[in-house]
Amino acid sequence: KATGPVYSLYLASISDPPENLKVMVSQANRTVLANLSNGTSLPVLEGQNLRLVCVTRSNPPARLSWAQERQTLSPTQPSDPGVLELPRIQMEHEGEFTCQAQNPLGSQHVSLSLSVHYPPQLLGPSCSWEAEGLHCGCSSRAQPPPSVRWQLGEGLLEGNSSNASFMVTSSSAGPWANSSLSLHRGLSSGLRLSCEAWNVHGAQSIIVLLLP
């Protein structure tokens, strides 16, 4: 009895480790960024609501999780652990957020550096009379770092400057900006002096009235 070749057909599912991992960012109910890469810096205004959605392709489906500074976070939606919602962003949210995708064949992750932005917050000004005249100091904190200047009557005094009547000294470190003002002469009762700080998110000023 003649026999011919026997062909067998095997059907097998294709298995893949997690790949094409991406993060979509939503603020104010609209997607503002997608396909973020590792180390992306993500600025968010303090008080805003933030939604991070992590998606990937794999077979079998990957297990998704979020961590902040390597501390695993409880899923916002247990049925969809790839979603992380951060209502009313505060300073404690600043830092690294990592989405991890893992299945039996491998893992992949994406890390974002979240920076919290906010308008200037003024400290001061505080003034004191000294032998040579009036000395005032003013500090402000903001992100991005603020600029600070003085307004004396109708004139603006900023940076590092001086003449026979005044001297302004300014410095900055991290989110802080500091400025000091020394007035040597030319003071009159009722003269308005104010310290002003500003960045792209807003401005703040405090007025001091010089008394006789």
Characterise this structure.
It is found in: Membrane. Belongs to the immunoglobulin superfamily. SIGLEC (sialic acid binding Ig-like lectin) family. It comes from Galeopterus variegatus (Malayan flying lemur). The chain has 212 residues and is mostly beta strands. The protein has 2 domains: 17-117, Immunoglobulin-like; 131-209, Immunoglobulins (Immunoglobulin-like, Sandwich), CATH 2.60.40. 0% of the residues lie in helices and 63% in strands. The protein contains no helices and 17 strands. The strands form 3 sheets. Strands 3, 5, 6, 8, 9, 10, 13, 14 and 15 form a 9-stranded mixed beta sheet that branches. Strands 2-1-4-7 form a 4-stranded antiparallel beta sheet, with no helix packed on it. Strands 12-11-16-17 form a 4-stranded antiparallel beta sheet, with no helix packed on it.
Keyword list:
transmembrane; 4-stranded antiparallel sheet; 0% helix; mainly beta; single chain; cell adhesion; lectin; 9-stranded mixed sheet; 212 residues; SIGLEC; 17 strands; Immunoglobulin-like; Sialic acid-binding Ig-like lectin 11
Topology:
Elements: E1 16-27, E2 30-33, E3 40-45, E4 50-59, E5 63-68, E6 71-72, E7 83-86, E8 95-103, E9 106-130, E10 133-143, E11 147-152, E12 155-158, E13 161-162, E14 166-173, E15 176-183, E16 192-199, E17 202-209
Parallel strand pairs: 3-9
Antiparallel strand pairs: 1-2, 1-4, 4-7, 5-6, 5-8, 8-9, 9-10, 10-15, 11-12, 11-16, 13-14, 14-15, 16-17
Output the structural class.
mainly beta
N-C termini distance: 125 Å
Annotation field: number of helices: 0
Tell me, rounded to a whole number, the average pLDDT.
85
Could you state the order of secondary-structure elements as H and E? EEEEEEEEEEEEEEEEE
Shape: rod-shaped
Please identify which CATH superfamily of the largest domain we are dealing with: Immunoglobulins
Quote the beta fraction. over 45%
Protein name: Sialic acid-binding Ig-like lectin 11
Pfam family, one: Ig_3
Membrane topology: Single-pass type I membrane protein
Subcellular location: Membrane
